[in-house]
Design a protein that fits this description.
The protein is mainly alpha-helical and 428 residues long. 67% of the residues lie in helices and 2% in strands.
């Protein structure tokens, strides 16, 4: 009987009012996102802030961000089984659920970036197998199917532990390298672009994997804390300790790798690389991303994880998780946009923007990018879809995941006589 396993309390249903309000808010945000996408389909990509110079924007760095969240969730869930970390097993199903929801939303994020959604069919009809983009689509599809199957098996394992134990373990050994491969392939879309020094580094894949573990663990932590606050979930102290350790170690590794890349560019002083990094250093026009990554996403969470007085603050783990996620998102924005701001060819009159406006020039020497309401609407709508999937999935786990009742002491946090369901598939 595992003392590290958390359980859901079998108590009376929660008030319907807050739940109804939550779903109403999500539906309204998704409706706004759908309306923004319909508008974009009518107007074209000119409705966005992207142009020929900066052709990847909010959609793509949010796509890379959600891919990281999904990979991190499955890595943490698989590690619990592969490395025998019993304290993380209570979060296995929650991690796999978040992974499936994230990769689903990440795949959908590509559609509005194409402008014409039917163009995605060309990837399957005329695949270019030498392109990392094709391999990324393939691994995303495999990953989504695997996550759904894994979640189903974990759910069955709750009621029939002896029958499904071997299958759970086999899937964990498959899931761990699959999650690492998913984010590595996404990283190679950037890292293999030899004409863009800002991206062309062998550190890109390991950096993406580490940041995925960081953001994915932070996301699962927030979901677990939210479930504990509003969903009858109990998070053991030992699990909190492991989550804190995962976030701390991955955050330090993430900052070290980004810093090592900065030092290499500055020391080498290659003009193309130097012109890119100058954009994000403290005096550059995109320095707010630098401060967001290193201070908001680095110093602040480290303080809440390491400083004793702050560690004792109520909600310190959740605060550190939020700021860590913001830091990773800032890194994704910095990576994508700054890689485009300096065009590959910089000669007068500049690069064609791709649209005509009598008030401004149709050429740019330096790229400019500001997301429009359309981009914000679509991204927020898809984020609301993610929250909807997770909420509905969690409710399904609560209602259908209770193991058969039997003799023995009540689970930790359970009320006497109540049923318990462990999110990791292990009954207390």
């Amino acid at each position: 009987m595992s003392t590290a396993t958390t359980a859901l309390r079998g108590k009376a249903a929660r008030p319907a009012g807050p739940i109804r309000l939550w779903y109403t808010a999500l539906v309204l945000v998704m409706a706004w996102g759908l309306a923004a996408w319909i508008y974009e389909l009518r107007v074209g990509l000119a409705a966005t802030g992207m142009r020929d110079v900066v052709s990847w924007g909010l959609y793509i760095f949010t796509f890379a961000f959600f891919i990281g969240l999904s990979a991190g969730g499955l890595i943490m869930a698989s590690s619990a089984e592969v490395f025998g970390i019993k304290a993380l097993k209570p979060l296995s199903r929650l991690g796999v659920l978040s992974a499936a929801a994230c990769v689903c939303v990440a795949a959908l994020m590509i559609i509005p970036d194409l402008g014409k959604p039917f163009r995605v069919i060309n990837i399957f009809i005329h695949p270019n197998w030498s392109s990392p983009l094709v391999w990324d689509i393939l691994i995303i599809s495999i990953y989504f199917v695997f996550s759904v199957v894994d979640l189903y098996v974990l759910q069955r394992h709750v009621k029939e532990p002896s029958r499904w134990h071997t299958t759970v373990r086999v899937l964990a050994y498959i899931g761990l390298p699959t999650a690492i491969l998913l984010h590595s392939v996404t990283a190679w879309i950037f890292g293999l672009q030899i004409s863009r020094p800002w991206w062309n580094t062998s550190l890109m894949a390991p950096l993406f994997v580490v940041s995925a573990i960081l953001s994915g663990t932070a996301l699962v932590t927030l979901l677990a804390l939210a479930a504990e606050r509003w969903g009858g979930f109990s998070l053991p102290t030992e699990t909190r300790r492991w989550l804190r350790g995962f976030i701390l170690v991955s955050l330090l590794l993430d900052l070290f790798m980004v810093g090592a890349d900065y030092v290499t560019m500055l020391w080498g002083n290659v003009p193309a690389a130097k012109s890119a990094i100058d954009l994000v250093l403290p005096n550059g026009p995109w320095s707010w991303l630098f401060w967001s990554e290193w201070v908001v996403g680095g110093v602040v969470p480290l303080a809440f994880l390491l400083v004793p007085a702050l560690r004792r603050t109520p909600g310190s783990l959740g605060i550190a998780s939020v700021f860590a996620i913001l830091g990773v998102y800032a890194f994704r924005a910095e990576l994508v946009v700054v890689g485009f701001v300096n065009p590959l060819v910089q000669y007068p009159p500049g690069n064609a923007v791709g649209t005509y406006n009598p008030a401004t020039s149709s050429f740019q020497m330096i790229g400019r990018y500001h997301p429009t309401w359309v981009e914000y609407g679509i991204v927020l709508g898809l984020t609301a879809l993610f929250l909807t999937i997770v909420t509905l999935g969690y409710e399904a786990l609560r209602l259908r995941g209770s193991p058969p009742s039997g003799p023995g002491p009540a689970a930790h946090g359970d009320e006497p006589g109540g049923k318990a369901m462990a999110l990791g598939g292990e009954v207390v």
